[in-house]
Fold each of these.
Amino acid sequence: MKAAYKLIEHTADIGIRVKSFSLPGLFKNAGLAITDLSFQKQTSQYPRKHNIVIRQKAANLEELFINWLNELLSVSAVEALVFEDIKIIQINDNFVDAIAIGSDIRNYKFSAEIKAATYHQLKVGKTGFLWQAEVIFDV
Amino acid sequence: MYEKIDDYRWRIPRSYKPGMRVPGLIYADEKLLKDIYQDKALEQVANVAFLPGIVNNSLAMPDIHWGYGFPIGGVAATDIEEGGVVSPGGVGFDINCGVRLLKTNLEYDDVKDKIKDLIYRLFSDVPAGVGSEGNIRVSPKEEKEILLRGARWAVEKGFGTNDDLECTEENGAMAGADPQAVSERAVQRGKTQSGTLGSGNHFLEVQVIDQLYDRDACDELKLNLGQITIMIHSGSRGLGYQVCEDYSRGMIASLAKFNIKVPDRQLACAPVSSSEGKAYLSAMKCAANYAWCNRQCLMHLTRKVFENFFGSSWQKLGMFLIYDVAHNIAKIEKHKVDGKEKDLCVHRKGATRAFGPGHPALPERYKRMGQPVIIPGDMGRNSYLLSGTERAMQETFGSACHGAGRLKSRTASAKSVTPDMLLKELGSKGIIVKASGRNTLVEEAPSAYKNVNDVVDVVHNAGIAKRVCRMRPLGVIKG
């Protein structure tokens, strides 16, 4: 599934801007942006698929957004999975419950290593009807 | 925003931003400062000055560029007795990213016609790239040993000698590491990555010495023009990223708990003497030890390749470690503040320790010349060996720059050159490059970096490190 995001210039790292008409859509787009930035699909020969439950809590929406992205990065590394799709089951400012649908990492070629999502210049919020987030990744 | 002190020093006064506890001090010349001013690095120098307990200055080395929280090339020391804090953002995700330099007794003529084969052999035998897994597999129990004992674990496995440990900052392991402070997730992320280079700006480079500066130091180190050296740049891989992420979460809560106000949440911190600060440092030391073990294993793999390639033992090839330095780390060190010796928590984020002659932390062999300071450049220009100075002890808590410093973003660099153009350009200079990913190659193009010669001129002329010799690359493997 193709992620919708734009790159933001940063001297050393990579920044992205994601938008959506809904909060679940915003979290999903940001999660899939990580996949798009990090991997290129090469093959489908490894059939292993694994659905991973991702649940995160935080004191506010911005912290939740960072915890969410870092959990996706961490689980992807440990489970050797690339998340091809994300289903948000429940979300509010302090809690997200989602299923990340992972494919065997061997189907992919790495294009960049994202170490983590950072708080630097982080923005998560709603303007009019549109949810928007900006985040800088350490690469 | 800043005012000139002398040709190599610039000050950001405290009045620039209410809340700055100390001024900013930038080491740069006018040429470098123009580039530095283009991004948000100087604003970050001012932000670091908000940290509770910070002493003297929020420092910026001439390779400074925009990071997250701290600038890359930033140094800050906090006074533990005065509530000084430790910030995971002042170390970064790649804890103890660092560099080591080996000498050989090979000369340029010995390798000039074989460099392509040698680089291809290194690329085949030294795991590189994102997600690369090493052949050095360890049990969970052994991994915890690595977290405690760092490079010593590798040496006891036969991957090096005690001499290597003597030539490694902290002898390859920081005391006070506590594996209990490291999450299971972090241990899992590290379990297959010992002895792997990683990606991004990490590399292994075969170089030749092309300029000698400090003849006495070169004689002491037995370094000569035309001599082959090897530089290895890597860090703590996924284990370090996870440690930083785990503790950054907790430090956000610490801001409210300790009523700390910083202008960027990536500067989240806690007093060094708090349980939060102590736990972070215990875990950070584990990641630092993992990184020293990693670079020791990478050096072992490199020695093996050279042994097979040249049909001689690494000892006969003279492949001895000159030094290994960390450039993303926080350390408790003694320094003088207003004439009084204090225990400080020194954050070096993209900065190298550069202790001067006679410092008790240095091995006997470097007591006279000062600590070797290893400064890699980009893959098309030079790298340097320098030595620490007494002036660095007085001004920068014994710190100097860590590299050339980025000038262009990764996307801008990738747009400006194709992999084929870059390989051709480097090839015309006699430099062979093998990279795991074509993206990495163009993102790391020489034009993406400041000229390391300009950066080193500043640290030398400012007196915070002294040029010993210069190397140029012959062949590079990149992640």
Amino acid sequence: MYPELKERVVILTGASRGIGQGIATAFAEQGSTVIGIDRLDCAETGEIVRAKGGSWHHYQLDLTDSTAITNAVADIAAKQGRIDILVNNAGILNAMPFEEIDLATWNRYLAINTTSQFLMAKAVIPHMKKAGFGRIISLASGILLTPAPFYAAYMATKNAVIGLTRGLATEMGEFGITVNAVSPSYVTSPGQIEVGSTHIQSIVTSQQAIKRDCVPADLAPLVTFLASDGAQFITGQTMHADGGLTYK
Amino acid sequence: MYEELKDRVVILTGAARGVGQGLAVGFAEVGATVVGVDILDCDETGDKVQAAGSKWKAFQLDLADEAAVNAMVEKVIETYGRVDVLVNNAGVLNPTPWDELDLDTWNRVMAINATGQFLTIKACIPHMKKAGFGRIINVSAAIAETPVPNFIIYRASKMAVIGMTRSLATEMGQYGITANCVSPSYVVTPGQIELGNDALRDGIVAVQAIKRDGLPSDLAGLVVFLASNRSEFITGQMIHADGGLTYK
């Protein structure tokens, strides 16, 4: 599909399952080298990537650990010789009424959903600048533009992702690096099943123009497109593959 | 790339030159059949499409003429038996300060930019519904969302198109038809030079994150992606391939 993606090196956070696994699969289908980062074991994703003929490496680490991030990216750069694409997919999403959000929870959301993306970008950008090429694609969220209750911390941290995306896009434009955000609709992923949020699925799906559940494979093609040469003039944008949940 | 687009039928308005010509070439490169529609002669575009090995047909007509639009689509169906993709690219971008904006100009620009898109979509939808597949891609312009003066009627007409596209997306979601808008940045095309708009260029490029002139080919990657099967969950959106001129 996109010959230029063959052998390009993709760092993908939250690669162990769900949306991350779908994105890893899509890049593997293009022949990219996929480097999965997750605090969980990524063996399942690794098997899929290898079965599709892609190269696979992984780092198990906590994205709130800035030293671990710096070390991992340095190791990737040393071993692969290049870093072309960063997909900031890792994130947490838990329904919680505002009154129940304490400072510790707020800080945790910020650390995982937003600051980790800042740290990953900080680590990879010097390599992308040197190469004169880069693609940073960050997960925002389709529910950001809906009046969904009980997601104050989540929405704050995901909106911050959009702000980071825009500011970074402006400063990176001259270096051949594009920076965009993508938003799926609600996906009943293993992560969502764990936190007991699956009741949201039917509510969200019923509001979409295309009334079927969003799956990782709905978002993955948008991510690979943005990583491709055909998207070289697209930057600073937040693009939705959300079945028409919200219109922008 | 995008094998499913081979021999799909794409009706493309404003095909004669500029951005339309760039889009025609983009579709020709993936083997789609291109039907070029314009008030001007499309021979130059036709030569490029056929040189790329794709099928080509041209119609010279006024998009504000309902009977002509309907006859064109009927002829396309008669010839090819299908219409898969409609790219509404034709539009006029005449700068007109408010005090000079009279009713005739208002009506004329609305007729071409908005009503013309309504008419082409109206004619294509029944065939897309029957096939259970359709892609409607309406081309706007990113400068419609910047504080550039003298484009009141242009902006009004393009916002009308965005409004129509959103509601269309909602109603067509169940039929396998997606509808989206796309925006290039300012592209110095023959049409723009004719209007004396090329003076706008420097100011716009200076604001972009990627500081170079927009080219017709910059939009083609996005439009062809949206026409493919891989974008089936993207609908009702307004997407910018504008070098980071505006962020949304």
